[in-house]
Please model this.
Amino acid sequence: MTFEVYGSRPHLIIPRLLITLFIFLNNEKLSMSSDQLSPLVADLHLLTVLAATRSFTEAARRLGVSKASASMRISELERAAGVLLVRRTTRSVGLTEAGQQLVNEMQPAFERISESYTAVKDLVGAPRGLIRVTAPVALGRQHLAPCVAAFLQRFPDIHIELELTDRFVNLANEGFDLAIRHTNAPSETHVAWVLCETRSILLASPQYLARRGVPSHPSDLAAHDCLLYLGGSHSGSWTFVRHAVRSAKRKSADKAGERVGVNITGSLKANNSEVLRDALLAGLGIGLLPDFSVPSGASGQAQRQPLVEVLPDWQVQGFFGEHIYALRPWSAQVPKAVQCFVEHLRRSFAHGFSTALKSQPAR
Model:
């Protein structure tokens, strides 16, 4: 027999057996019946979600209830406990010392319950359930969306919520199962699967280069219009490192690994590579794109105004990662649906992002 903790989503239903497990894991001897304990477990679960989200609105959304209902349940839990658990202000929600202590003791048990229940469900039948995924806007629109469509056709019992955003998402606090990110060093607190390699490319249109000239060294960029990616603390400067392999092929006398820093300026800054790509195609300047946003030539726009690589012997550091990863907060069990989706992405991204770019010789 089961009861709903909150809402009607399948992953929010906990069998009575797991309530007993909850008591056992916390080494508690409660003089309550299962019927008396069920609402308490529901409210305690809500408190742990509220602690992660720091928002009644977000906690209610994740549990499929109204904000008013979530607030009322916390108030009832406080009355039952006889102590204030949550500090509410017009701008924020925080836990009292008692509330934080309770969450610290309950959270590991709820995580183990969730993992155990997921493992049992995965023993039988086809993969099923909801996967909440976050990804950068450009990567998601151009490459992830087609993968999702093919995956859902193959696994009709799996549902995906895909949120495309260029902000850094806290997966655990915001309830995401998976993030697709380009990075050099994924967090050790996450499970990370490499999907493919990726690189950053400095680009311009032939129209712009014909008008302003082709830079032969990173220092030449100080005299050019550069389109800036708004990311981290590097927005006003680029740091270049010379490629070892390409320098050897061209028999350059310059040493591989040479580093050059350049302060750059331009008429456009944006935190989205698609916006910068369109500005490059319009001939507004020289800009940095991840290879997954480089026009492939399939579109009419790219055919009319292709982009060429600038300073191909050099690599800009610190903006886009060198690998695309699928990331998940660490847990002992990975749901079968998530495993299937990751394997699908690894097959789809296995060959990376092909770019057939020409480089413009310096003049």
User: Anything to note?
Assistant: The mean pLDDT is 81. The longest strand covers residues 190-197.
